[in-house]
Automatic annotation (TrEMBL):
It is found in: Cytoplasm, Cytoskeleton, Cilium axoneme. Residues 430-566 form the Dynein heavy chain AAA lid domain. Residues 278-398 form the Dynein heavy chain region D6 P-loop domain. It comes from Diploptera punctata. Its main location: cytoplasm. InterPro entries: AAA_lid_11 (IPR041658), AAA_lid_11_sf (IPR042219), DHC (IPR026983), Dynein_C (IPR041228), Dynein_heavy_D6_P-loop (IPR004273), P-loop_NTPase (IPR027417). Keywords: ATP-binding, Cell projection, Cilium, Coiled coil, Cytoplasm, Cytoskeleton, Dynein, Microtubule, Motor protein, Nucleotide-binding. GO terms for molecular function: ATP binding; dynein intermediate chain binding; dynein light intermediate chain binding; minus-end-directed microtubule motor activity. The lineage of its organism: Eukaryota, Metazoa, Ecdysozoa, Arthropoda, Hexapoda. Residues 27-57 form a coiled coil. GO terms for cellular component: axoneme; dynein complex; microtubule. It comes from the Eukaryota. This is Dynein heavy chain. Residues 573-733 form the Dynein heavy chain C-terminal domain. Belongs to the dynein heavy chain family.
Length: 738
């Protein structure tokens, strides 16, 4: 403006510019202002630099937040019901910033900020995950944080997740299986693990003691191997004791991120409710035998929302209930009521209408309006029907029983409080039996994970069984002078819990637990609920919590009345699932496949060339048939095997050759080629191969080695058609009992 005014005055000035006082004053003002602006520009540059420097101090927090969001965004690969929006994540991120404890220095504050963001996102996410997926999420989060910060070696992480084994080896030591020894041989090829195989053979006694210990993840590794990094120890542990890997991962997370990340305590519904709003509904992911409605009703009663007051609307979806649900949502949004829509998965055709109705009701809704939704997850991704927008906008909560005795026992106690403990006139007896019931409830639920070794059949034990049993206990103690042990055992073991049981042996087991725990000795403090865990004495509610934390032994099958070997099978399966899923969730950019120094394309080409070099020429059926004089049943089986092997090998050669040409740019990459490339990179057997082969759960490397053994057996047999002294029946393609 000053510049325009000055130019205008100069243009209108006469011959003697200096006589124009206003022009001279304006010129001085403009000069002074220009000098001030120049000073302020310099100050702004300094300020901008200071802002940039301060902002750089917090870059690690921004990096951590973006990393966590993309991990959340990938969870739908595990289950399509795990959907999270950026909007919801931003709210969690902002809350984490506000709740951060300020440190003495900037560096300390940033560290606190990182911890707060990570923990808040973990808690927000994990409450909406099934128990089997929580450790997968925790492991993926930990690995990605440590890879980003440069604290772990990507090639070692790649080994841990892939676990490549050298096939067809025989273990030289009796305490390792052939598969474990194959893993040790592969690991020994890495620089950091050189001579590990020789050391195990040379110091077999020390290694045997380590491998056969009850909790090897807590023991020190023999000799200099105890000085290895936490991730390197995980790599060795995966080869030595795959069944203990879930516990080893928890120990790893505890060491790297902190113990609070592995405490399996569920969040109270009232606390989750604080995050809701008229535009943020709650979505309950249902589990068998769990009813989330009780939590909603309990909180609603406390806050003044009940069916009697007509401000709590409960609609169980089914045929003809859609209109009722829509009307309830309209009324509730206008007057500030609560609405719970149960089992929305039963009305697939109405879900798109529900999503639109939710948007309509959210506009100008009453501040007290709340919507609660429940649905069962689809049994497979293909059958998933819940709209993505609905899932992203809501707070997801699972009500599954937690995993592990400590978490289950605390969860059982969550159903009661200090008032419950004091409500009976026979307080000491009531408390003692109530605690035993909580332990019994945890045992019967956790035995499910042991499969047929836990229960012959799966039963839907639930929280209702526990709460009703406690009510029955209260009534009986109030009405009887002596504790009616036999009546209580019968009611709990045959009716409340036993009502679910259909197998005689399971019923007998249930009765036996109660006979051992519910007896006169309980009041004398002589009952052991598990080895090293006696029934507690008379305590208050907080005391029982502390007793569990301080006295309960480390997680072991002994806590459930089982031998330690009972958990080997399901723990091995759990760890294999965990590593396979985490590996599938690793970043897939071609420059850093799974975080390794070898690119994705190089990895695929290497696997392709290795297999193509080993695929033999097809059997010449005409030449083979010419050798035979009489076609006996054994000869016919050999012919069939040769034909089937040719069929399978032909598919291997064709698909690999096409992919090779595609990678060279001589053929257009098709969807089938992309699928094959993905399988080669992920070390999985392509579906087009398994369709022509035999049933197998092996990964690609061991599968191909196994195929070569079968081929060798067939070549030996078809060379002269003399029946071998022994026949590998499971090696046939036509009949494979394995």
């Amino acid at each position: 403006v000053l510049e325009d005014d000055l130019l205008t005055r100069l243009a209108a000035a006469g011959e003697d510019i200096l006589s124009d006082t206003a022009l001279v004053i304006n010129l001085e003002t403009t000069k002074k202002t220009a000098d001030e602006i120049e000073i302020k520009v310099e100050e702004a540059k300094v300020t901008s630099k200071q802002i940039d420097e301060a902002r750089e101090q917090y870059r690690s927090a921004a990096t951590r937040a973006s990393l966590l969001y993309f991990i959340l965004n990938d969870l739908h690969k595990i289950n399509p019901i795990y959907q999270f929006s950026l909007k919801a994540f931003s709210v969690v991120f902002t809350t984490a910033i506000h709740k951060t404890v300020k440190g003495g220095t900037l560096q300390e504050h940033v560290e606190n900020l990182l911890d707060s963001i990570t923990y808040m996102v973990f808690m927000y996410t994990s409450r909406g995950l099934f128990e089997c997926d929580k450790l997968i999420f925790l492991a993926q989060m930990s690995f990605q944080i440590l890879v980003t910060s440069g604290d772990i070696n990507p090639s070692e992480l790649d080994f841990l997740l892939r676990f490549p084994i050298t096939p067809n080896l025989t273990s030289p030591v009796d305490f390792l299986t052939n598969t474990s020894w194959g893993g040790i041989k592969s690991l020994s090829q890495m620089m950091e693990f050189r001579n590990l195989d020789r050391d195990i053979e040379g110091s077999a006694k020390r290694w045997k003691k380590f491998v056969e210990s009850e909790y090897p993840e807590k023991e020190k590794f023999p000799q200099e191997w105890k000085n290895k990094s936490a991730l390197q120890k995980l790599c060795m542990m995966r080869a030595l004791r795959p069944d203990r890997m879930t516990y080893a991962i928890k120990s790893f997370v505890e060491e790297k991120l902190g113990s609070k990340f592995i405490e399996s305590r569920s969040i109270e519904f009232a606390k989750s409710f604080e995050e809701t709003s008229p535009v943020t509904p709650v979505f309950f992911i249902l589990s068998p035998g769990v009813d989330p409605l009780k939590d909603v009703e309990k909180l609603g009663k406390k806050l003044g929302f009940t069916i009697e007051k007509r401000n709590f609307h409960n609609v169980s979806l089914g045929q003809g209930q859609e209109v009722i649900a829509e009307n309830a949502m309209e009324v509730a949004s206008q007057h500030g009521h609560w609405v719970i829509l149960q089992n929305i998965h039963l009305v697939q055709g109405w879900l798109s209408t529900l999503e639109k109705k939710m948007e309509q009701c959210e506009e100008g809704a009453h501040s007290k309006y709340r919507l609660f939704i429940s649905a069962e997850p689809a049994p497979s991704p293909e059958l998933h029907i819940i709209p993505q927008g609905l899932l992203e906008s809501s707070i997801k909560i699972t009500n599954e029983p937690p995993s592990g005795m400590m978490a289950n026992l605390h969860k059982a106690l969550d159903n009661f409080n200090q008032e419950t403990l004091e409500m009976c006139t026979k307080e000491a007896e009531f408390k003692a039996v109530l605690f035993v019931l909580c332990y019994f409830h945890a045992v019967v639920n956790e035995r499910k994970k042991f499969g047929a070794q836990g229960w012959n059949r799966s039963y839907p034990f639930n929280v209702g069984d526990l709460t009703i049993s406690v009510n029955v206990l209260f009534n009986y103690l109030e009405s009887c002078t002596k504790i009616p042990w036999e009546d209580l055992r019968y009611l709990f073991g045959e009716i409340m819990y036993g009502g679910h049981i259909t197998d005689d042996w399971d019923r007998r087991l249930c009765r036996t637990f109660l006979q051992e725990w519910l007896k006169d000795e309980l009041m004398d403090g002589d009952v052991m609920l598990a080895p090293g865990f006696p029934a507690p004495g008379n305590m208050d509610y907080v005391g029982y919590r502390a007793y569990i934390d301080d006295t309960l032994p480390t997680e072991t099958p002994y806590l459930y009345g089982l031998h330690p070997n009972a958990e080997i099978g399901f723990l091995t399966t759990s760890s294999e699932t965990l590593f396979r899923t985490v590996f599938e969730m690793q970043p897939r950019d071609s420059g850093a496949g799974a975080g390794t120094t070898v690119t994705r394309e190089e990895k695929v080409k290497s696997a392709l060339e290795e297999i193509m070099d080993k695929v033999p020429e097809p059997f010449n059926i005409a030449e083979i048939m010419a050798k035979v004089e009489e076609r006996t049943p054994y000869i016919i089986v050999a012919f069939q095997e040769c034909e089937r092997m040719n069929f399978l090998m032909g598919e291997l050669r064709r698909s690999l050759k096409e992919l090779d040409l595609g990678l060279k740019g001589e053929l257009t990459i098709t969807q089938e080629m992309e699928a094959l490339e993905e399988c080669l990179f992920m070390d999985q057997v392509p579906p087009s191969w398994t369709a022509r082969a035999y049933p197998s759960m092996l990964t690609l490397g061991p599968w191909f080695a196994d195929l070569m053994l079968r081929l060798k057996e067939l070549e030996s047999w078809s060379s002269d058609f003399n029946l071998p002294a022994t026949v590998w029946l499971a090696g046939f393609l036509t009949h494979n009992p394995s």
